[in-house]
Amino acid sequence: MPKVTVDGEEIEVPAGATVLQACELAGKEIPRFCYHERLSIAGNCRMCLVEVKPGPPKPQASCALPAADNQEIRTDTPMVKKAREGVMEFLLINHPLDCPICDQGGECDLQDQAVAYGRGGSRYERENKRAVTEKYMGPLIKTIMTRCIHCTRCVRFSEEIAGVDEIGALYRGEDMQITTYLEQAAAHELSANVIDLCPVGALTSRPYAFEARPWELKRTLSIDVSDAVGANISLHSKGREVMRALPRINDDVNEEWLSDKGRYQVDGLSKRRLDKVFMRKGGKLQPVAWNEAFDAVAAQLGTAKSSIAAVAGDMVDCETMFAAKSLLKACGSTQIEARQTGMTYDVSNIAAVNFNSTLAGIETADAILIVGSHIRWEAALVNARIRKAVKAGAKVFVVGPEWETTYPAEFLGEDLKVLNRVPKALGDAMKAAERPAVILGGAALSKGALAPALKLVDKFGLVKDGWNGFNVLHMSAARMGSLMLGFTVPGGMADIAAKAPKVLLSIGADEMDYEPFADSLKVYIGHHGDRGAHAADIILPAASYAEKDGTYVNTEGRVQFAEKAVFAPGDAREDWTILRALADALGVNVGFDSFTELQGKMIAAVPALGEEGLADYGALPEADANGKAEGTISTYPIADFYLTNPIARASAVMQQCSAELLHADEIKEAAE
Amino acid sequence: MADRTPAPDTPELRERWGSFEWTKANKAKADYHIAKYPEGRQKSAVMPLLDLAQRQVGEETDTQGWLPLPVIEYVAKYIGVPVIRVLEVATFYFMYNMKPVGKYHVQVCGTTPCMLRGSDDIISACKARGMKKGEVSEDGFWTLTEVECMGNCATAPMVQINDDNYEDLTVERLDAVLDALVKGEQPKAGTQEPGRHTSEPSGGPSTLKEMVDANHDYRGEW
């Protein structure tokens, strides 16, 4: 551990640290543009200059200089001040200084650092500024390339983190330009993260262009519900509208990235919203009063109160599910199910359907078998983690149809029988691995591969001291929460249908099949006019994830709490209040009158939900020795990454992404 | 500075160059270059391969050669590198032509030493013969580019034409070189000054005179 002196203060820094990191440890702010903690070091902006002794008598770029014993680092000398002023003056020679019309204004590194470290004027005022043409980078990224200062963060991100080499720096010297090949759209699931990385206004958000200034926005801590990763986000709202979603830093979950869907589906929050109570009369949905709708439900049930079932959707919070469960319990029914697409895997032991390695842990795996998961689409951030593992030397095998991986991977075909008789390459890699892992996706679960996959635990030695390599990757933000709450019946949706309930409560369930429930009174409690609302007889408008407090559990069993950012539109109410009012209409008692009471009851029932962090599900179950893997995985559940949930389907941005990035060829053909 | 933007990606360009692949001889050369680098580092061969591709295009079109986008894509695929990485290299180095050039690519150095020794006259002389900067002349023979220092300051002014340098130029000497090229002859490369061999001081050596004919040990005289 080298000992260095920073501005006269002696500190010890970890071996391998850079001078910049040493200065940060000493509490000194070092201005920088190209340096980023999660990217490789480029050293090309020169803003982080400091004075270092021993060494040449000139300023040194601290980001690329290793800290060494007995170094004397100064960040406060006239030489450093002058060097920073000089670099800033150079950077601003060609920068347009169009801050008043720039979307980065107010959250711009260049703006902030020019104020803090610049000299207040330029000696190049008579020089013409370089102008660079705008580059097309797709529907999400807006470019104003004259503002670019060539830090190359975006280039390094797409190469190192996303694994899709598409942004590059062409030409040289003053002519250098950042662009994609032939200005094709940046088409991967993490593309918009370069907007956050850009220290200036060269890459800004296209859907958010000229919408708001950062100081007008209210920030609310929330959780992304577009997939089961549970990325930590902050919702930025202005008035009653969510303007944008940005990732928060959480090294255990999303580091500081966010998938494009989680980031850009928020414009769907103000489109196709259910803001009135509707009831189907003569085949047509008509607006009615709350009471009329409640009375209709009560009338349909009559005295057979237990003939009610509830199905929860993919984005429902734990409190809502607990409220629904309480309501049905009070009615005497146990017909509750959250696996709305009809999956029936065994949930008696939640450890068997959890991502046990943890999201951060999968980075350390050295052999990974993926069964039936298109991870890039099902959990883009987990894919970035696996890429990290591969870069550190892990081998990856995939069972299922081929998809474009962002790392070298061996596809073992679509037949699940390979789990019974393991190919030699896979067996050898797993045997040699110290931290082997298996990841089971939704496509595998629906083919009943859970039991045979559990046999691999012993075969591959997936569970070791401090390591559990058995993982199930879910796609729905509500899934782990619903399993912890016991929001399932053994036979899944088929069981519910077989009971032919008089009333079916659909709580945001838009992916389920409504056909078997033709005779039931279908009550849809949700926020978007999507498939569920189309099938419903009664629509009770509810709140989306941005409009209510709620607990979510991500696929690794991490309990996280999201806060309410804005109010739901029109007559829409928070889900639990609707269920509470319905309880009164049905004449039953659910035992809570406020959100706090509801949450208290829920935590009393499932204590793990009261504690933010990883829930403990105990050990994996014993594998069933007779379990045999059968069948082939011919498709993955997600057909279109950008349109997986009702919010995304309502979002104009997501529709555009889907059309432009995934279906561009079809559109072109149709045009011809 | 020369325009480094790639030639536009048109259907005609795709049709002409879309089926580009190494000739047998060039494939052997390409594999020879790749084999210089250890396993997993094949992408290091990008520069010799781009040069090879440019020369092959040159042979096919009877010019110095250039790099159409489909050819760049072919090279990228050949070494398994994302095409944007190869395009970065190709647009960076001036030895790669991004647009079609003539049979002879006349690169005139215009940096200070050459300018002081009369490179402006050289450029005028080139223009007088119908060359235009960045364009192929009407007869298809010439492309003129003004470049920065080529490291021949001792024999300024100079031009580089395809693979050869012609130094110590005057307008007359340049005309002689260009005339020879038009006739299909190969003029003497290097300095054009009579009596001068390479870049030794003009008018004979002024120091180390004993070294002219044979090696001489100066150490006793220090």
UniProtKB/TrEMBL annotation, chain A:
Pfam families: Fer2_4 (PF13510), Fer4_NDSU1 (PF22151), Fer4_Nqo3 (PF22117), Molybdopterin (PF00384), NADH-G_4Fe-4S_3 (PF10588), NADH_dhqG_C (PF09326). GO terms for molecular function: oxidoreductase activity. Its cofactor is [2Fe-2S] cluster; [4Fe-4S] cluster. The keyword Iron-sulfur applies. Coiled coil: none annotated. It catalyses: a quinone + NADH + 5 H(+)(in) = a quinol + NAD(+) + 4 H(+)(out). Residues 217-273 form the 4Fe-4S Mo/W bis-MGD-type domain. It comes from the Bacteria. SUPFAM superfamilies: 2Fe-2S ferredoxin-like, 4Fe-4S ferredoxins, Formate dehydrogenase/DMSO reductase, domains 1-3. Residues 79-118 form the 4Fe-4S His(Cys)3-ligated-type domain. Its EC number is 7.1.1.-. PROSITE patterns: 2FE2S_FER_2 (PS51085), 4FE4S_HC3 (PS51839), 4FE4S_MOW_BIS_MGD (PS51669), COMPLEX1_75K_1 (PS00641), COMPLEX1_75K_2 (PS00642), COMPLEX1_75K_3 (PS00643), PROKAR_LIPOPROTEIN (PS51257). Residues 2-79 form the 2Fe-2S ferredoxin-type domain. CDD domains: fer2. Keywords: 2Fe-2S, 4Fe-4S, Iron, Iron-sulfur, Metal-binding, NAD, Oxidoreductase, Quinone, Translocase. Binds 1 [2Fe-2S] cluster per subunit. NDH-1 shuttles electrons from NADH, via FMN and iron-sulfur (Fe-S) centers, to quinones in the respiratory chain. Couples the redox reaction to proton translocation (for every two electrons transferred, four hydrogen ions are translocated across the cytoplasmic membrane), and thus conserves the redox energy in a proton gradient. NCBIfam families: NuoG. This is NADH-quinone oxidoreductase. The lineage of its organism: Bacteria, Pseudomonadati, Pseudomonadota, Alphaproteobacteria, Sphingomonadales.
From TrEMBL, chain B:
Belongs to the complex I 24 kDa subunit family. CDD domains: TRX_Fd_NuoE (cd03064). Pfam families: 2Fe-2S_thioredx. Keywords: 2Fe-2S, Iron, Iron-sulfur, Metal-binding. InterPro entries: NuoE-like, NuoE_dom, NuoE_N, Thioredoxin-like_sf. It comes from Erythrobacter rubeus. Its cofactor is [2Fe-2S] cluster. This is NAD(P)H-dependent oxidoreductase subunit E. Residues 185-222 are annotated as: Disordered. Gene3D superfamilies: Glutaredoxin, NADH-quinone oxidoreductase subunit E. Residues 210-222 have a biased composition (Basic and acidic residues). NCBIfam families: nuoE_fam (TIGR01958).
